[in-house]
Design goal:
It comes from Cellulomonas composti. With about 140 residues, the protein is α/β, with parallel strands linked by helices. The protein has one domain: Oxidized Rhodanese, domain 1. The chain is built from five helices and nine strands. The strands form three sheets. It has a five-stranded parallel β-sheet with strand order 1-8-7-2-4. It has a two-stranded antiparallel sheet with strand order 3-9. It is globular, with a radius of gyration of 14 Å. The termini are far apart.
């Protein structure tokens, strides 16, 4: 079984704000959170978790365990919305969550700051560019 599907940043926000049980999980690295910013968990009533999918050392072997620590349980039906930089790592994270019986698990297309634009920079697409709540750490 694959993840539940892809959402635009606005669709992800709409799901997160309309489903009081839904959880946003940012799977970027600590360095990305610190350098680029994060979705504003306060705007979601605290329903956001920060769990690295990959670190400098490689894949996070405790990823599913850390998701469970964020309050999701297998079979509880709680929607989980995964976010990374550009929407690639979050697909793999959503698939891993689904395989562990969590979710439905969704991927945010374009991620937090989107892919590289014609000017060689990120930030033209994604959560932040859509004007959704975020903050610096």
């Amino acid at each position: 079984m694959s993840y539940a599907g892809d959402l635009t940043p606005q669709q992800a926000w709409d799901l997160l704000t309309s489903d009081e049980g839904a959880l946003l999980v940012d799977v970027r690295t600590l360095g990305e959170w610190q350098q680029i910013g994060v979705p504003d968990a306060d705007a979601l009533g605290g329903r956001a978790a920060f769990v690295e999918w990959l670190s400098a050392a490689g894949p996070n072997p405790a990823f599913v365990e850390q998701l469970l620590g964020a309050g999701v349980e297998p079979g509880d039906g709680r929607s989980i919305v995964f976010l990374c930089r550009s929407g690639v790592r979050s697909i793999a994270a959503a698939q891993a969550a689904t395989a562990a019986g969590l979710g439905p698990a969704y991927n945010v297309l374009e991620g937090f700051e989107g892919g590289i634009g014609p000017d060689g920079q990120r930030g033209h697409d994604g959560w932040r560019a859509a004007g959704l709540p975020w903050k610096s750490l």
